[in-house]
């Protein structure tokens, strides 16, 4: 039993799920090439039949990898590579692998979160800037400009800079002691 | 879902190229044949200078269908075309080579 990856969205296909499509790619009778496409659900299957390229369909893993939204290269991916040679059963090996799987999973998840965080780095400041701009420009939608002029408390608070002089800090230190 | 008048490709080197299904063997009232069923077919197109000729009536077993094959373990397999392999009366294949994928139902 093997857990396959969906050809379209790259999610795992568990046994009993999905559909496999076998395509004969042979043009010449003697040379025969086979391709097996596995799909996790009919959504992926239908998109495939529509001849959509998964690299252009935004919710697929292929798109996210190509456009840098998700990690592409990492050493944790090496553990999950497809191996065609079956391993001889070794109890110790099996035990170690079962212990290692959740650890590797955890590492991979933390690295992916870090990748996401790096990607979203400059975003908070940008959002705040846009928000202040929107408030300044569009406050008339909320309150009429005349009302704002009458009642100054309704305007945005101005940033007040408080400069602490050196003298004060020295005095504070004296008090602490 | 092969029924009479369905055209089938051939996946062996028996000499036929295309068959048209005439009848499903052992069917009774059953409408359709699927993978593993034997059909009676007439050869519509044949490779020249081989033992089988055009408009010869032969038997064939279906090995691939565009309609999905559902297995009891939950696996569903769908092929790209409808294909058959030419058979004689004792259910031995007439050709010596078979091309393409074959499901294990046909063992």
UniProtKB/TrEMBL annotation, chain A:
SUPFAM superfamilies: Glucocorticoid receptor-like (DNA-binding domain). One of its GO terms (biological process) is ribosomal large subunit biogenesis. One of its GO terms (molecular function) is structural constituent of ribosome. Residues 116-127 have a biased composition (Basic residues). It comes from the Eukaryota. Its main location: nucleus. Residues 113-132, 146-177 are annotated as: Disordered. It is found in: Nucleus. Keywords: Nucleus, Ribosome biogenesis. Residues 6-52 form the TRASH domain. GO terms for cellular component: nucleolus. Pfam families: Ribosomal_L24e. Belongs to the eukaryotic ribosomal protein eL24 family. This is TRASH domain-containing protein. It comes from Arachis hypogaea (Peanut). The lineage of its organism: Eukaryota, Viridiplantae, Streptophyta, Embryophyta, Tracheophyta.
